[in-house]
Amino acid sequence: MDDQPGGVVIRFITEGQDVPSDEDIVQRECADKLRAFIALAEDLLAGLWRQILRHWPLDRS
């Protein structure tokens, strides 16, 4: 599925394949965006944790 300028959506369906509903497509796109957001949040938290450990060592002896 390609989004073309002007809001035209082109779908290629092969013979015998079920045509996904618009709701299914929206849910799949939302799930993909949510997974991408979660991956970004995990990366940011890992980076923050590395910065904390770098500037605040746990061994203070």
> Largest beta sheet: what is the strand line-up?
1-2
What share of the residues lie within helices? 55-70%
Task: Indicate the mean pLDDT.
Answer: 81
The count of β-strands is: 2
Gyration radius, to the nearest Å?
21 Å
Structure notes:
The protein has one helix at residues 22-55, and strands at residues 2-4, 8-10. It is mainly alpha-helical and 61 residues long. The chain has one domain (17-61). The termini are far apart.
Outline of this structure?
By secondary structure, the protein is mostly helical.
Key features?
61 residues; mainly alpha; two-stranded antiparallel ribbon
Write the layout of secondary structure elements.
Blueprint: E1 2-4, E2 8-10, H1 22-55
Antiparallel strand pairs: 1-2
